[in-house]
Amino acid sequence: MMKFFKVLYVQVLIGIVAGVLAGLLFPSFAPAAKLISETFINMIRMVIAPIIFFTIVLGIAGAGDLKKAGRIGGKAIIYFEIVTTLALVIGLIVANFFKPGQGIAHSNLATDKVVEYSSQAKALNWGEFFSHIVPPNIIDSFAKGDILQILFFSILFAIGLKWMGGRGSSLLLNFEKINQVLFNIMRIVMRLSPIGAFGGMAYTIGKFGFVTLALLGKLMLCFYLTGAIFVFVILNLIAKFYKFSLWKLLGYIKEELLIVLGSSSSEAALPSVMKKLEDAGCDKEVVGLVIPTGYSFNLDGTTIYLSMSIIFLAQVFKIDLTFSQQLTIIGILLITSKGAAGVTGSGFIVLASTLTASKIIPLEGLALLIGVDRFMSEGRAIVNFIGNTVATVIIAKSENALNEAVYKTVVIDKKLMPVIVS
């Protein structure tokens, strides 16, 4: 029995349950719980930038070729666009069918926080999103943890290193050792994930409570239903087409899923899932390119949330959106959703920017979603996380960059591969 409690995902599950109880019984504990959650996420963020950098450089310069890297990137972007568009359309269909916004009163809205979000949204210049990928100062990009800028610099650095030929081999060897140290740090941090999950859930329940859910319960149910349809129907069908089991893959990353649930951030499990996918036989180059790119271009959960929330607010304000208006919103969302980072709260800012750009729905309607947003944040993060994990396996399979024997041993048979110490 004691051995059972030593399993990490069991400890995380206990942390989540304990956090819910603490939030219910001691709501005043919420500020302290928020500090615990934020500290845990910061511990992970401190290694995300260097892990992405070294993983990409080692993948491209170490064993890969430049044409392959370009092909992987192109495939990933095309896949992301197709799948996120599907997620967006599913969100619109479910919201139009179930009409979660009907009958919700919008008088006496508490609009004080809407001003804050709308000002942040106005600061996001979506026309400059792609130019933002090129960092003016890479040190600043590492300091801020800007994943897209780090990805861009890492690819250029890997190309430059590869052009050195044999002269760069000693540097690659040192990079390999540094990367191993970083993943050892991650192993230490992940042991603290039950505490991080406890803090995240205690803060959410203590701060917002379950009362908000009673008011917007229909929206919550629709959102989670849509997320489930997307994962277990759309992603499951794609996985079947590529001849691997979605259920087995989800079982393999169950610890990370619980950490994402507890912290409400898909970023919290990014380094861990990168290591797990490499251990499962995915080529390092594929993992290094697909996962970081997916955190800006493949946010399926955020896309569902954005499309559903806009239709919800239209229904609240009794705005009958025409088909052409909904197509316009889809077009705007295809751009704005790419700017959402995989961290808590970003989806809400992007929603504000989308409403500002569309000029169809009153921005003050966001006040209705502020309380319930945190409860949907967990769902967004989990769907985002699953979507990027599945995408990595798919791109690896399409590139013949997945060691099927290793994948079967680790993911399907659930046996640990022997660690080779060099």
General description of the model:
With 422 residues, this protein is mostly helical. It has a single domain, classed as Orthogonal Bundle (Proton glutamate symport protein). It is 76% helix and 0% strand. It has helices at residues 2-5, 8-25, 30-63, 66-98, 112-122, 129-132, 138-144, 147-162, 169-190, 193-208, 211-215, 217-241, 246-252, 254-263, 270-279, 284-297, 300-316, 323-336, 346-358, 367-398, 404-412.
Short description:
With 422 residues, the protein is mainly alpha-helical. It has helices spanning 2-5, 8-25, 30-63, 66-98, 112-122, 129-132, 138-144, 147-162, 169-190, 193-208, 211-215, 217-241, 246-252, 254-263, 270-279, 284-297, 300-316, 323-336, 346-358, 367-398, 404-412.
The helix/strand series, from N terminus to C terminus, equals HHHHHHHHHHHHHHHHHHHHH
The total count of helices amounts to 21
Distance from first to last alpha carbon? 36 Å
Largest beta-sheet details: none
Give the structural class.
mainly alpha
CATH class: Mainly Alpha
Shape: globular
Mean pLDDT: 82
CATH H-tier superfamily = Sodium:dicarboxylate symporter
How many strands appear in the DSSP assignment?
A: 0
Percent helix, as a range, is: over 70%
CATH topology: Proton glutamate symport protein
